[in-house]
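Input structure tokens:
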């Protein structure tokens, strides 16, 4: 890149191209707490775009745990975990998360993005190969880039292709996959991925950001749901900012992997620890997520309701049994127009456009929550049924 590419003129031209192509991104300013009703510009909107799948982000017990921990531990952690930032609430949360997913140990990271970057680059170097599902989350894509290993991408969930790529690679091998794919909502074929990884001496890192708390009878995530244990070759990454309603992430694995991350993971070592109050709030939300099974029941009822209703009105939905329910419209402008129409009905659903999703698969990305009522889902379906028809 020459310096000229960064002049205000060039940047303006680039922004204009995004605008013309209906790819320009804007932020909304939200007043008040996250929930199925959010306040935007003084209007109450019915939201189908949050990842707060269990309705815990603003739960009174979670808020109270946060406040009383802040009174005791202050707000900032003040240092990284390896210096003096690793407090008792962090440690207790790590033990509880390990127990939750059935792994020997868990390690907290400040975000899921950082957990993926830090884990992949602690384990891999330019002598190894990283294998990626084509629909993996951006943080897994960037993680592979950062670690300098050679990167092989396989078509979504195509295990034959993955098998032959694995068979033809030497050295360290690491397969990266979403557990629940963040834009399509489908589940990775975990049992078969584990089998393939075993056969080829590879490790398997599963990013379960959207499965954690949601899938499995106790909310343990995609592994609990598939009846697979979190043990080698598996390394699990889970986030706390989605169903658990707080902030942060963790990696769960056997002792040796966790100790390696503590020694070598740069996004673990060179960053400030999460506030201890966030850890305490997460301990509270984890207790609720585990024990209040009615939340998952409600959520899965709403998912079924949405899918039945969407089929009835002829929408193009995808194979997803998770809270992520995409309605594929095709062109970016169709997705954008649909989102605008919903918005005029005070319903918030984001239009997801390339490059986040493949070309010609721009979509409305509906996400459901345990705290949506049947009437609210009905209201969404009614608004969707009045959209102008388009064929993806
Ligand atoms: C949200 C998300 C992340 C990032 O987690 P943060 O804690 O928000 O940084 C990583 N992977 C997937 C699949 C996600 O959906």
């Amino acid at each position: 890149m020459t310096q000229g590419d960064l002049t205000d003129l060039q940047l303006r031209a680039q922004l204009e191209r995004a605008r013309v192509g209906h790819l320009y991104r804007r932020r909304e300013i939200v007043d008040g707490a996250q929930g199925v009703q959010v306040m935007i510009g003084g209007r109450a909107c019915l939201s189908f775009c949050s990842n707060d799948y269990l309705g815990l982000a603003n739960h009174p017990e979670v808020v109270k745990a946060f406040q009383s921990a802040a009174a005791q531990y202050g707000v900032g952690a003040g240092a990284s975990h390896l210096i003096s930032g690793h407090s008792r609430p962090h440690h207790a949360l790590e033990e509880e998360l390990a127990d939750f997913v059935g792994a020997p140990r868990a390690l907290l990271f400040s975000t899921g993005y950082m957990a993926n970057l830090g884990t992949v680059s602690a384990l891999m170097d330019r002598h190894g190969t990283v294998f990626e599902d084509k629909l993996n989350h951006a943080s897994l894509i960037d993680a592979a880039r950062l670690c300098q290993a050679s990167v092989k991408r396989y078509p979504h969930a195509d295990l034959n292709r993955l098998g032959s790529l694995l068979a033809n690679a030497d050295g360290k091998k690491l397969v990266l996959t979403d557990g629940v794919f963040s834009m399509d909502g489908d589940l990775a074929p975990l049992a078969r991925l584990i089998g393939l990884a075993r056969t080829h001496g590879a490790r398997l890192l599963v990013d379960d950001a959207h499965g954690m708390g949601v899938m499995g009878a106790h909310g343990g995530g995609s592994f609990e749901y598939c009846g697979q244990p979190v043990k080698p070759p598996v390394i699990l990454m889970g986030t706390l900012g989605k169903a658990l309603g707080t902030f942060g992430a963790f990696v769960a694995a056997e002792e040796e992997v966790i100790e390696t991350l503590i020694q070598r993971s740069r996004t673990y070592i060179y960053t400030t620890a999460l506030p201890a109050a966030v850890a305490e709030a997460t301990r509270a939300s984890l207790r609720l997520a585990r024990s209040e099974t009615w939340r998952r029941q409600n959520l899965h009822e709403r998912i079924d309701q949405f899918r039945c209703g969407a089929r009835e009105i002829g929408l193009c939905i995808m194979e997803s049994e998770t809270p992520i329910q995409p309605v594929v419209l095709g062109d970016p402008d169709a997705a954008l127009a649909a989102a605008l129409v919903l918005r005029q009905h005070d319903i918030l659903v984001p239009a997801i456009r390339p490059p986040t999703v493949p070309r010609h698969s721009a979509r409305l990305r509906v996400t459901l929550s345990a705290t949506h009522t049947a009437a609210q889902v009905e209201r969404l379906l009614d608004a969707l049924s009045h959209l102008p028809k388009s064929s993806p």
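The mean pLDDT is 95. The CA atoms of residues 105 and 151 lie 28 Å apart.
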